[in-house]
Every structure is written in C-alpha cells, then in structure tokens.
Amino acid sequence: MVGICLIWFYRLKNIIPRTTGYHDDHDHDDHQPAEGRRWAWIGMFMAEVGFGLYWVITQSVRWSFIRFYPLKDGLSNRYENMLPGMDIFVCTADPIMEPPTLVINTVLSAMSYNYPPEKLSVYVSDDGGSEFTFYALLEASLFSKHWIPFCKRFNIEPRAPEAYFSQHYSSVQDNKFAQEWLAFKKLYEDMKNRIETVIKLGKVPQETRKRHKGFSEWNLNIKKNDHQSIVQILIDGRDTTAVDNEGSRLPTLVYMAREKRPNWPHNFKAGAINALIRVSSEITNAPFILNLDCDMHSNNADTIREILCFFMDEKKGDEVAFVQSPQSFKNVTKNDIYGSAFYVTQELEFAGMGGYGATPYCGTGCFHRRESLSGKKYSKGHRVQWNIEAKKNEGKSVNDLEESLKVLTSCSYEKDTQWGKEMGLVYGFSVEDAVTGLVIQCRGWKSVYYNPERKAFVGVAPTTLEVCLVQNKRWSEGLYQIFLSKYCPFIYGHGRIKLGAQMGYSIYLLWAPISLPVLFYVIVPSLCLLKGVALFPQIPYPYIYGPVSVFHFLVFYFLWALSCCTIARITNEEYGS
Ligand SMILES: O=c1ccn([C@@H]2O[C@H](COP(=O)(O)OP(=O)(O)O[C@H]3O[C@H](CO)[C@@H](O)[C@H](O)[C@H]3O)[C@@H](O)[C@H]2O)c(=O)[nH]1
Ligand SMILES: [Mn+2]
C-alpha cells in the first residue's frame, strides 16, 4: 500500500506542467509533443490509480482463505436411513454445439452417484427442443439399467462412460473385470453409434419413434425457438418396478423443453433453471438441487454425500444456501494459452471468498438448497425439514402429471410473477449465476466453497480463440452490468454481506473497466519509449527503492502462491484475457 502511494505521489509530483507557450525545457521547437507527454503522464497516473485501487480490493480475498474436509462416513453412520432427496438439473441448449452424446454422458454420471437411487432424480432441460436429445436420453435410460450396476459393482470412476472408456486398462489383472470392461465398452459404443446414425440421418426413424409416446411431440414441425411445452418422464422413480438389471431401483429421469415463442423472452439458462425448479417441485421436490451444465460430468461418485455434510452440519448447516465446486477442465493445455482454467480464481480467490461465506455461484457444479433458490430469506433458528419428500402428486399417473407440468413450463406462466426477480435465478444479466448468488447471500444465507483433491466435476473448456473471446466478452459485460445495476455489491450488499465479500465480488465485476488501464499500460509506455519520453524515474532517486521492492515482493508472492504451474500459464491467465 505504501509502495502504491509512493507511485501515485511520484506521478503527481512530477506531472509535466501545461505548456504556456513560453517554456524553458529543451523541447522548445514545438508545442504538440509537450502536450502529448503531459497526457501520457496523466494517463499513466489514471492507470496507476486504477491498478492501485483494484489491488486493494483483490487483497480482501487473500487473507480469509478457508478449506473444508467433510467426513462423509460420519454422515452415513448417522443419517443413512434418512438421507434427503437430490434433484440434479442438467441444461443443454443446442444439439450441434452440445451433442446429445455429451449430454447423456453427464446424465449417466449423475444417475450413478453412490446414493440411494430412489432419492436421486435427473432433470434435463433442452432449450434446443431437439428430438435427438430426447432420443439420446431414451437410449441412456435403457443403458443406465446396465451401467449403474456395473459402476457400483466395480466402484469405477469417473462414471461418465466416454471419459471412463477413454482411459486405458492395459494392466487389468482381474479377468472377469477385463471381460466386462470390454463388453460394456462395446455396449456403450453401440449406443453412441445408434445415436450418431440417427443424427446423421436428420430424423428419428419411424420404428424408433414407436418405442416411446414422447416422440409424438415432434409430429408437428418444431423449431428451436417456436414450440409447445414438452415434459416427458422417462423413468418414473415412484414406480417400484422401474429397476435395473440387478433389481435395484432406478433414479427418476425427466426430459423437459419449456415452451418457446418468438415474442416471449426466454431468459436463457436462468429461464431454463426456473422452469426446472417448478417441474421438479411437482415430481420429487427434493430439498437439495445440483445444477450442472451438460458439458460437465461428475468425477467422484461420493460427492453428494460429501456435500451433504455441509448442509446437514448440526451447528452451521442451516445457514448454508449453496455449495460451489470449482469448474475443472480436462482439456486445458500445459500453458493454458487462453487462460480458461482460472487457476488463481479457483484455487485462491474463491476459497478466500469462502472465508466470508460468500463464494460466488458459478452456474455449474453447484449444490443448492431448494428453499434459498426459491426466494426464501434465511431466518436464524429455522430448522429445515429436509427429509420430507414430495407427496403431493403421488397418486397421479405419469400422463396426467406430464400434462399438468406443461402449464408450469409455458411462456406465459411467469408473467406478473416474482420469478426472475425474487424467486429463482435472477433475469436480465448474461451472468445469471453471479447475480443470483449475490442476491441469495444478501438474503442472509452463506455459501461454501468445496474444492476437494479429487475434482468433483470435470468439463471441457473452450478450445478456439473465437469461442474464448465470445465467452470472455459475455462474462465481462455481464459482470460489469451487475456492478452498474442496483445489485452493485457496495450498495445492494451494504449491511447485508461483509465488506470483504463486497470487495471480493468487485474483483470480477470490474474485469471490464480494468482492461482500460491494462490496455493503456501496454501501449503508451512502448510508444513513449520510441519517442524518448521518460515516464519512469531514474534509479538515483532514493525513494523509488520502496515501490520497486514492494513490487518485487508482490511478484514473488504471486509466483510462490502459484508455484505448481508454469510461468507461461500464469502470464497467459493474468494478461491473456
Ligand atoms: O438459452 C440457453 C443458453 C444456455 N443454456 C445452458 O447453459 C449452460 C451454460 O451456457 P454456455 O453457453 O456453455 O456458457 P458458458 O460461458 O460456457 O457458461 C459459463 O458461464 C455461464 C454464465 O455465467 C454459467 O451459467 C455457466 O454455468 C458457466 O459454465 C449450458 O449448459 C447451456 O446448455 C441454456 O440452457 N439455455
Ligand atoms: Mn459452457
């Protein structure tokens, strides 16, 4: 801080004075360069003020680091017979960008958690309204009857078939396992081929359509942005005869494509999740919800049990609204050229925000308490009845239930309601997750950051510059939009969340404006160097040693904190985006 002030002081003190037409410096031949120099200095000063203040807010998350180690065996010992229900939401939006096989890999990994299947439900929201995705899910529902027992019998990881079979098992000792491994690989690949053939064909063949009544929804010509509500319960978890090939119950599996009409706003992913909240509340109404993007599969079959330790903790559990896990990517290269791994953010800063109970919600890999997600305020001492299951539609047939759910997913349902404002995910921002997390925390709830050694979820990061830039632009814009809106953490969060948390949020919300000083700093000093304009002091000034050594200290601190990755990776991450 002292170093920063000294830099400001130096800059202000030595700022080149406005030229008055009469000047005695050696540059007396013309007027312009002196004026240009003056502006370069003022620009440098402003950039340094920006950096300095930004540095101050980044400190908030560096002194409150917190890490958790849940003891899941304790949970099983105490609560095994009264474990709460878990609804898992998987969002997909486009069958081309997000191929149906990718979606079912996420779905299958979610269905095979080490958790009582009758308490587990997977809901897929398909904003693409694609019959290919529906067909793939139908295939997955049949495949799961073999896959889930296989996973549990051999306790394999990860439980997304594609990721699992891409690992090599050249040294398989156990002959029986080796045989099954090969047989299952073939079973999976056959299914994948069937799905891909249908997609190449461009339509689901007539014989296949006969296999499920749900295909009749696509009898009319459906467009991605213009179609009726579709809700299909592929596996009805209430049905005790819905069992896998070893006789164990299966988790519920539901396909949903909410109604889309050209003149109605659909609010992107936030709209999809809000529709899922309503649909699931009528079917299973589990007290906890896991939210996954379709490109992020489970990487640890025990995660649900670990996460429940936070929610069910006797002392602090009741105030926890959500537990966020980092987004880990399996396709990040050694130097991570597009800086998509967000190493510093995920390893350091989110854990720092966790110290204030204010880790942000990141849109995927997040477990929510249904109550807090639905708009409820935290009230101290209120014990949640998490082991009460939904009984409201117990007697209803699948068909009746599906019909009644269509109303909840229609375009007009949310009109004049609190959905998107006080209830569910917040609308109007391209980063619905960050603003929703902030709003939940401002209602008195806490969040937990859980970053285990073995990553809970693994996904794919963008691989092309174009996709990366679009994503970064959307994030920076959306985050800055929050800062400028009524949800600005310093105003909306004032008195509701800790100052450190307000500052922590601002690190991200100010990504967009901080790019201006960065841009200035990379362009102008180089130009000044070419023009021979001095911007920095010459070493003989004694007071410059202070700032210089502080700067070096910071650089070393930073490198030390990140000592496990390459220097190129750090520079790519910090300056690449
Ligand atoms: O209209 C839409 C648009 C997107 N999605 C789904 O939302 C998820 C995220 O969208 P994507 O286009 O992949 O955005 P990313 O930039 O990769 O997503 C990051 O940033 C988003 C906004 O902050 C978060 O919601 C995500 O969880 C986070 O992974 C995907 O599963 C999509 O299928 C929908 O369901 N409906
Ligand atoms: Mn994505």
Automatic annotation (TrEMBL):
Instruction: Show the GO MF annotations.
Output: cellulose synthase (UDP-forming) activity
Biological process, per Gene Ontology: cell wall organization; cellulose biosynthetic process
Keywords per UniProt? Cell wall biogenesis/degradation, Glycosyltransferase, Golgi apparatus, Membrane, Transferase, Transmembrane, Transmembrane helix
Subcellular location as annotated: Golgi apparatus membrane
Taken from the UniProt entry, a GO cellular component term is: Golgi membrane
Q: What SUPFAM superfamilies does the annotation carry?
A: Nucleotide-diphospho-sugar transferases (SSF53448)
Q: Which InterPro entries match?
A: Cellulose_synth (IPR005150), Nucleotide-diphossugar_trans (IPR029044)
Q: Where are the transmembrane segments?
A: 39-57, 505-524, 544-568
Q: Active site annotated at which positions?
A: 127, 433
The question of whether Transmembrane is a record keyword is answered with yes
State the function annotated in the UniProt record.
Thought to be a Golgi-localized beta-glycan synthase that polymerize the backbones of noncellulosic polysaccharides (hemicelluloses) of plant cell wall.
Protein name in the entry: Cellulose synthase-like protein E1
